[in-house]
Specification:
The complex is a heterodimer of chains A (114) and B (115). Chain A contains no helices and eleven strands. Chain A is mainly β. In chain A, a hairpin with a 3-residue loop joins strand 4 and strand 5. Chain B contains no helices and eleven strands. In chain B, a hairpin with a 5-residue loop joins strand 6 and strand 7. In chain B, the strands form two sheets. In chain B, strands 2, 4, 5, 9, 10 and 11 form a six-stranded mixed β-sheet that branches. The chains are: A mainly beta (114), B mainly beta (115).
Amino acid sequence: EAQVTQNPRYLITVTGKKLTVTCSQNMNHEYMSWYRQDPGLGLRQIYYSMNVEVTDKGDVPEGYKVSRKEKRNFPLILESPSPNQTSLYFCASSFAGAFNQPQHFGDGTRLSIL
Amino acid sequence: AQSVTQLGSHVSVSEGALVLLRCNYSSSVPPYLFWYVQYPNQGLQLLLKYTTGATLVKGINGFEAEFKKSETSFHLTKPSAHMSDAAEYFCAVINSGGSNYKLTFGKGTLLTVNP
């Protein structure tokens, strides 16, 4: 089954404790992206990757890091989490090369930073 | 820069009634438009998309949307609401002239279906 898998689904942690949210897709997609969803703001892009070792900032990259060492994985790293990073996070992937390709989303990771 | 406006953060309809969710966009280049649905505790699922060609687009679960360039709109409709349609709906646009496949989302419309 084609899917985007995120882990963990839920996490409560404390300010300053490094954490990683993993994202893996099994569709051989080149493009992967992270969004955060906040009430009243919709979804905003954090980082994206056009392919292995190619990453770039989205609209709200501050406080986040990413890496793309393998095609299927695109982890989101919070080196020193702060309460304003409490949010619902989604990973998405699609084929590159055409803007009409639908993006597939994971089920989300709800982070609470205390 | 592109943007998406969804009119009405909350829409409530009766079961069997027409569903109309409004979406207006701005884009300096021909847009690709999408509607996604989000059920509780789930990710976003693609309902339908407009890229080129026919302006009336049919999607899953009986939904359809019409691209109207003159009105910069892409409203989502369904003739008869079902209880299972209760969810949050997001309109999104991709800038076809960019180098990032970033989806710019509206703020979402929560659809409630009353029995």
